[in-house]
Design brief:
- The longest helix has 30 residues.
- By secondary structure, the chain is mainly alpha-helical.
- It contains ten helices and no strands.
Length: 201
């Protein structure tokens, strides 16, 4: 194995270990030494590849946005192939991703833990959320930026409220199925925005 290959392998091992630490302990308890120990590398290895703890967590969060982007891209393709609403499919995919990976989703938006102007992080975040922006733009081109932000706030808020158990405590339906309620509300929002768009065509 060449030195570049060894470096790539070591970096990937550190990222996997950091992700595992994140899932097990939460972002606040992830440390460079623990990640290096889990990866079977020297305690200096994380600093060599990422600079510091924030750099390492930023790399993990960047990977999270890349994964979210792939998830949303697949949802967009499925919507196109099936003739379903792209906004509904993307909204559901976003909610499912957030509920399936709560620790990662939390880190991805935890500004205090990240280097938020890191170019790779910024590019991955914009690319992932761009799928939702495109779906909204196709539906309401006149006010696409505002509706894109509202739509993202809706699906992200549903993830947060569902994870915290708040949604079903105040709902009169789906009281025992918080994830089902979140999915239902995504569909309700999509239908509402579609109706608004129809009024302006």
């Amino acid at each position: 194995m060449t030195i570049p290959d060894q470096n790539s392998s070591a970096r990937d091992a550190l990222l996997r270990s950091a992700h595992e630490e994140l899932i097990e302990k939460g972002h606040a308890s992830v440390s460079l030494r623990a990640v290096a120990r889990r990866a079977g590398l020297s305690h200096a290895a994380p600093a060599h590849f990422f600079g510091d703890r924030a750099g390492m967590l930023t790399a993990v969060a960047t990977g999270g946005f890349l994964e979210l982007g792939r998830t949303l891209a697949a949802a967009a393709r499925d919507a196109s192939a099936s003739g379903q609403s792209a906004l509904d499919c993307l909204g559901l995919a976003y909610v499912e991703f957030g509920l399936a990976q709560p620790a990662l989703m939390d880190l991805m938006f935890r500004r205090s833990e990240l280097v938020t102007d890191d170019p790779a992080f910024v590019a991955a975040q914009r690319a992932a959320l761009g799928y939702l922006r495109d779906a909204v733009s196709d539906l309401v081109p006149a006010d696409s930026e505002e509706w894109s932000l509202v739509s993202w706030a809706v699906v992200h808020g549903l993830v947060s409220l569902t994870r915290e158990g708040v949604l079903t405590r105040v709902a009169e339906t789906h009281a025992t199925d918080p994830a089902g309620l979140a999915r239902h509300l995504v569909a309700v929002y999509g239908a509402g925005l579609t109706a608004i768009a129809a009024q302006h065509t």
